[in-house]
Specification:
Blueprint (H helix, E strand, L loop, with lengths): L20 H22 L19 E5 L5 E3 L12 E4 L10 H7 L8 E3 L8 H19 L4 E6 L1 H12 L6 E7 L16 H4 L6 H6 L9 E7 L19 E7 L11 H12 L14 E2 L2
Parallel strand pairs: 3-4, 3-5, 5-6, 6-7, 7-8
Antiparallel strand pairs: 1-2, 8-9
Helix pairs in contact: 2-7, 3-4
Length: 296
């Protein structure tokens, strides 16, 4: 997928022009605290599961012929789907679907279908088990919408769960594009509550889950777009949020001036995620991702 040139400092409404890295870090930290305060207020509204949106199915026309000795009969016509795949949103550790309020709004512009926001239990202790549950939820979304494939956007741990489903559980036949936001693809050296919660230990470098994701994945059909923030204090080092695998079709997108919590709520990142999801399949004209920069 073709990406535009790197972000200019003026692309994000943050004080990125300051020459001292410490000033940029202070600004990003202040924004992180603001995002955290806002998210704590919205958190209770995301505790309950989302009610699925049932798409309207057009009535099939009756067959024009009528049997001589019977009533009119109807012929089932095949339903072809030309719209983009439905989008599934998956939150991070100890979070819920309320974190995607801004992103949902950006993705539903111009009449696009509403994304499906999933909650997984904060008591989940294993990435593998969570990935298996995600697989069943994706099947339910496909059945409900009539699509064969979906797109997934995962923040932090949510991106790791989605990648495990795609890469290790055969989910690549269902997931067209996986967008991750601040996900520890290579394992992070710093994680909240490290060593206390089993699923947090799985996010650390060298864990059995991270090592499984390093194994060969020939023929994986999912496209990966990974957004990583230079000032992300949860991903250590920051580059661990990049997808680095020879068998995966992956693009790593660098975001400057913001931290971990701001990734799913910043308008520039939301616009870039929307651009990534609107990108066409290989062989067609690419839709550029705006508001972000490809990592070298």
């Amino acid at each position: 997928m073709k990406l535009p040139p790197p972000l200019s400092p003026g692309s994000l409404p943050l004080p990125l022009r300051l020459p001292r890295p410490s000033s940029a870090l202070l600004a990003a930290t202040a924004l992180e605290l603001t995002v955290l305060a806002g998210h704590l207020l919205a958190y209770p509204f995301g505790l309950t599961p989302e009610r699925p949106e049932v798409p309207e199915v057009p009535e099939r026309p009756e067959h024009p012929r009528q049997h001589e000795d019977g009533p009119h009969t109807t012929t089932a016509l095949p339903v072809t789907t030309t719209a983009a795949p439905p989008v599934v949103l998956l939150h991070g550790f100890l979070d819920n679907r309320s974190v995607f309020l801004v992103l949902r709004r950006a993705l539903t512009r111009h009449g696009a279908p509403r994304p499906t926001s999933l909650n997984y239990s904060p008591l989940t202790r294993d990435v593998r088990a969570a990935a298996a549950v995600l697989g069943r939820q994706v099947e339910a979304v496909c059945t409900r919408t009539g699509h064969d494939r979906v797109d997934i956007v995962g923040h932090s741990l949510g991106g790791l769960i989605a990648r495990y489903y795609v890469q290790r559980l055969g989910g690549d036949h269902r997931v067209r594009t996986l967008v991750t936001l601040g996900t520890p693809h290579g394992g992070t050296a710093v994680a909240p509550g490290a060593g206390l919660h089993p699923i947090v230990r799985q996010m650390r470098g060298g864990s059995s889950v991270i090592e499984e994701l390093r194994r060969p994945a020939p023929g994986c059909r999912t496209r990966f777009v990974s957004f990583w923030a230079e000032l992300d204090q949860v991903m250590v080092p920051a580059g661990t949020a990049c997808v680095d695998h020879p068998d995966l079709d992956a693009v790593n997108v660098r975001v400057t001036g913001i931290g971990h919590l701001a990734l799913p709520v910043h308008p520039a990142v939301a616009a870039a995620v929307r651009g990534a999801l609107e990108a066409r399949e290989p062989g067609e004209d690419d839709v550029p991702v705006t508001g972000a920069t490809s990592a070298a």
